[in-house]
């Protein structure tokens, strides 16, 4: 029987990404000089692609697991 | 709102308020107290705090546990479950065949064999159960290397993500702290009376540069 859970991690990551976007929007209203632009380009811009890459990797793994669960599971009538 | 202007206004108001209580007649003591007030003895440096403590590793540790569960599921749980199910199905088939034989012998009428429909159906069901268990075991054998590969591929991305969290993101936090310190130092500067040109905060805050 399946007992792993990748969804909690995905939810945490997506929630963090959402909070990050909201915080960034708030910060940008107060801090928008050259120093910010340099900081944004070097440190903030890579955050979303990195998190997205991780989420995509989990989605890919999940696809394999769902198919395996369908083939190896015991959920059909007569089993369990 | 200009936060620096606000801070200066607040300090000036508080200084006026404090000074209104102080009446010192001795010239030397009065000078010393005024100097001390000018140096800001009664109003400490502004406190700026960034980044409450967080544990980026905790969620990744949880993820590691889930990956071990996946490994356990395909390598042990599924393999054991279907191996046992095949044994049970095999026993059930033998039992069904035995019951069919007994029924055929006991219900035989002269040269006519009995239909024994229920027993035959039971044998068919048991055969299907055994086939399913064999198919499932084959599926487990097929999926085990596929899942291993998928987990390995994922581990590579997870590892890169972890390194990024521990290096680049920590550097980003450090750079922000450095800029914050630069700002605090700037706030504490006393403006010389003849200073006209504003300090370029952007330059001072640039990462890697000494303020």
What does this structure look like?
The complex is a heterodimer of chains A (80) and B (211). Chain A has 80 residues and is mainly alpha-helical. Chain A has one domain (6-73). Chain A is 76% helix and 0% strand. Chain A is built from three helices and no strands. Chain A has helices at 7-30, 34-44, 47-72. In chain A, helix 1 runs antiparallel to helix 3. The longest helix of chain A has 26 residues, at 47-72. With 211 residues, chain B is mostly helical. Chain B has six helices and no strands. In chain B, 12% of the residues are buried. Chain A binds chain B through residues 1-6, 8-9, 12-13, 33-35, 38-39, 42-44, 46-47, 50, 53-54, 57-58, 60-61, 64-65, 68, 71-72, 74, 78-79, and chain B through 59, 62-63, 66-67, 69-70, 73-74, 77-78, 81-82, 85, 129, 132, 136, 139-140, 142-143, 146-147, 150-151, 153-154, 157-158, 160-161, 164, 168-169, 171-172, 175-176, 179, 201-202, 205-207.
